[in-house]
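Question (not urgent): is this output format expected?
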Amino acid sequence: MLFNQTHRHADGENIPNQRASFSSAGLIGGIFDATPGYIAYCEPVDGPDTGAIDDWVVRVANARFSTLVSWVEGPVTGQTLRDLFPNLVPAGHLAHYTAAFLQKQAVSFEFSYTIDTEETWFLAGAEPFGNGLVLSWTDITSQKKAAADGPLSPVVQAILDYSQTAVALHEAVYNDDSQIVDFQTLQANGQALVNWGERGQARLRESLLTIEPEARESGEFDRLVRVATTGEPESYELAYNDRLYAVTVARADKGVVTSAVDITIDRQYRHQLEAMNQSLRQSNENLQSFAYVASHDLQEPLRKIQTFSDILQNQFEDNLSDGERDMTRRIQKSARRMQMLIKDLLAYSQLAGRREAHQPVRLNEIVNEVVSDLEIGISEKKATIEVAALPVVRGSAFRLRQLMQNLLANALKFAGANRPPVVQIKARQATPADLPDDLPRSNSYWLITVTDNGIGFDEKYKGRIFQPFQRLHDPADYTGTGIGLAICQRVVESHGGAIDVSSIPDEGTTFKVFLPVD
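Got this back:
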């Protein structure tokens, strides 16, 4: 999986998809980084007051893109375009991306930007993909200067020849009625000649339609005429010599300038990515369906086991030997554990499939309900529950109740043997330094902590604690199925947040829940 596609709304709600990075994509990621041009995948950020798209946050960028903002410390991922390129905002640069995203249609345009006091021209392209946009910027400064200065100088020609972007200057050929009837290629860099193959040198001697008469049928000639006539640049994809190119045509004096970038590998990679994402989605759906059906179908035979063991226990107890009564009790105990396991497995599988409308939720009310439900256990353990003022968050009250109940029940279960449990639930707004690595620093989060004075655990097992069925303590001493904390993680992630934990053996544990600020 390549992208983590998440549309960040102003109200903090997320629409999660898969997450990974180009650094983990191996060879293909390396090819992406080596691809000429500046490429990034961005997702929209809604304004806090308007609810409309106000900015774009960079989720993935190739190595070349990062060189545009060499003054930025750390990675560009997680940064917004407003922060990275503040001078582009007044020029309405972001409006093009918003239009492409909302209209689900690729756009291209030219813009200039000053880098180290040098004015640099780019051809920008934006193509909707998933819940964001794939941005590609191509440096066309040389083409701009060529159009302004006339024939290419030897120095400029040498520079262009080292470029991996194919660039060529074509002069329009007119008839007596001042209509464009053909184009003559005046200049072409080395990459253009390579792309043209055997026809390369011939195109510098003969006109376009003489060498490639099929250009009229394919529409390429009409496109060049349209650009030369209207002055409006156009971008399109062109299959040529078994390769796929992203081509841009712009008017230049008496003709047009074309630039072409080979995107064959990029397009193959995109198709592979889409296929992998589809396969993963199908696999996840199959797993969720299997978990639900399997656990649901197990309940009926389990009920029969419980029923018949109860009959043995209640009606035939006097006729059973001590050994038979012990076996009956063991059957009942195992049946109760299996019932608990099925219940938790159902809850875990349903979390991935159910999508509930998010509403404002008062966490203090949720915690008070949970404390009321756990009143007997709290009383038996002589526990103290200290609850500070908690925020109102946007989410599912049902799921957030699952979260708090599992965390509080966990704190009571793993209480120390020689001291009454004390559980503290607090909240504050998280600082960027508090946030886990997988949360963007550009967003605001609440930090809700659940701290106990229980038995704790060695943090070398921290990576296992949120995995289903993982248990760090002896099941004979501590009951449960090992799914509760996995449910907590799914609940938090479905709300666009994250969960972390820190612990010291024999001193206690603190669970840290990060939820978006409404």
